[in-house]
């Protein structure tokens, strides 16, 4: 949906206002010197507010007209000039094959959302921004009660309920189309590993500008590290691959999910440094070592799933003959799971929580992090005059 509150927050993704401090001020608003101005130690200029003209939004600085797809339930603010590569998340078939539904998340997805809610603690009346919201599943779960949710993603494949219930923006995380301090809190889950290092740096910088000075940012991603426990997961993965080759589980989907990982974060210290450069400090970190998840979700459930689907590999198809993406609002999603399946999944989710209870202080690659903005005065003192 496109609420009035969302319209108030929108801005041209590429244009910065003229005003700024001594080093980022310019004569006219516009896209010139974006990278340097946005990264200015003062916090950079605000982005140019969009004018409503009929059914579209227009940037008064660069004259770009952005469509509002009211029927599709989102506004399209993807930069019209390239700001870097787009991953295969922009591919319709990719989304179809992840089999997303709008049912509440279960299993490891639920573990991640619960960690996010526990660390971010959205307050009544706050709107939480999902950076890289995908189909909108997590945002739907987050935007309940007095907490609202908004999502931004570069790929326009949203769940039908998401287009009705949460604010949706099509946009590039490296050029967030929002005014300064538009949101009090935001999260990004399973996103940063898909970008290169400059991409991660840009997303953090954009998130810093979009969050209010007392804002919070939660991330779930991974550094290229592993603990002694991770050896168990590697063992399960090898086993799953063997079983997959024998046709007893669908190993292809998991491989696809990870196929475009760039893994830009070398270590937790490296991430701390990237965060500091963007003006954040990491205040809490928990690690995700998986033992129960590896056995239950990556092995047993996939064998059960494959047995139910029949042994014919359901996803082996020829990429040369894909049907074109459907016209009209491009929503995705299969039927929700049956009640019994959902009950079992919830019970298993409780078992998966044991991983977090036992191992979340054992340093490893995958991590949940809470970050808060460093006050600008401190940020300025780090910069040579
Ligand atoms: Zn400045
Ligand atoms: Zn503009």
Element layout with pairings:
Blueprint: H1 4-9, E1 11-16, H2 34-38, E2 47-49, E3 51-53, E4 56-58, E5 65-69, E6 74-76, H3 92-97, H4 107-120, E7 127-131, H5 137-142, E8 148-153, H6 160-165, E9 167-170, E10 183-189, H7 197-210, E11 211-222, H8 230-245, H9 251-258, H10 268-278, E12 280-287, H11 292-309, H12 339-359, E13 366-373, H13 376-381
Parallel strand pairs: 6-9, 7-8, 7-10, 8-9, 10-11
Antiparallel strand pairs: 1-2, 3-4, 4-5, 5-6, 11-13, 12-13
Helix pairs in contact: 4-12, 7-10, 8-11
Residues 12, 14-15, 48, 59, 61-62, 64 line the site of one zinc ion.
How would you sum up this structure, described in words?
The protein has 385 residues and is α/β, with parallel strands linked by helices. Mean pLDDT is 88; it is low at 312-329 and 378-385. It is globular, with a radius of gyration of 21 Å. It has helices spanning 4-9, 34-38, 92-97, 107-120, 137-142, 160-165, 197-210, 230-245, 251-258, 268-278, 292-309, 339-359, 376-381; strands at 11-16, 47-49, 51-53, 56-58, 65-69, 74-76, 127-131, 148-153, 167-170, 183-189, 211-222, 280-287, 366-373. Helix 4 crosses helix 12 (339-359). It has an eleven-stranded mixed β-sheet, sandwiched between helices. The chain has a single domain, classed as 3-Layer(aba) Sandwich (Rossmann fold), CATH 3.40.50. It contains 13 helices and 13 strands. A hairpin with a 4-residue loop joins strand 5 (65-69) and strand 6. One zinc ion binds next to loops.
């Amino acid at each position: 949906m496109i609420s009035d509150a969302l319209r108030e927050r929108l801005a041209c993704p590429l244009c910065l206002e003229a005003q700024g401090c001594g080093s980022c001020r310019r004569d006219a608003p516009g896209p010139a010197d974006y990278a340097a101005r946005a990264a200015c130690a003062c916090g950079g200029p605000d982005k140019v507010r969009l004018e409503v003209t009929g059914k579209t939004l227009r940037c008064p600085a660069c004259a770009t007209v952005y469509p509002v797809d009211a029927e599709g339930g989102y506004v399209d603010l993807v930069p019209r000039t390239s700001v870097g590569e787009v991953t295969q998340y922009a591919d319709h078939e990719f989304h179809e094959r992840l089999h997303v539904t709008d049912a509440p998340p279960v299993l490891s997805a639920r573990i991640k959302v619960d960690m996010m809610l526990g660390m971010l603690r959205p307050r009544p009346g706050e709107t939480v921004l999902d950076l890289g919201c995908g189909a909108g599943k997590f945002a739907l779960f987050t935007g309940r009660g007095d907490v609202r949710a908004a999502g931004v993603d570069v790929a326009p494949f949203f769940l039908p309920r998401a287009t009705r219930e949460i604010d949706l923006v099509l946009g590039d995380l490296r050029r967030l189309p929002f005014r300064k301090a538009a949101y009090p809190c935001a999260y990004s889950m399973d996103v940063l590993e898909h970008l290169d290092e400059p991409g991660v740096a840009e997303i953090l910088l954009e998130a810093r500008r979009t969050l209010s000075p007392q804002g919070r940012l939660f991330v779930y991603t991974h550094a290229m590290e592993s603990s002694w426990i991770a050896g168990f997961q590697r063992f399960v993965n090898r086993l799953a691959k063997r079983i997959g080759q024998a046709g007893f589980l669908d190993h292809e989907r998991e491989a696809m999910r990870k196929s475009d990982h760039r893994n830009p974060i070398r270590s937790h210290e490296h991430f701390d440094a990237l965060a500091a450069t963007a003006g954040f400090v990491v205040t809490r970190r928990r690690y995700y070592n998986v033992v129960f998840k590896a056995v239950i979700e990556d092995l047993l459930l996939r064998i059960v799933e494959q047995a139910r689907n029949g042994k014919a590999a359901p996803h082996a198809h020829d990429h040369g003959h894909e049907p074109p993406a459907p016209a009209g609002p491009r929503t995705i999603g299969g039927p929700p799971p049956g009640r019994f399946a959902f009950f079992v999944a919830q019970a298993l989710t409780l078992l998966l929580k044991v991983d977090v209870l036992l191992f979340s202080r054992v340093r490893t690659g995958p991590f949940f992090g809470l970050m808060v903005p460093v006050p600008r005065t401190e940020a300025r003192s780090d910069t040579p005059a």
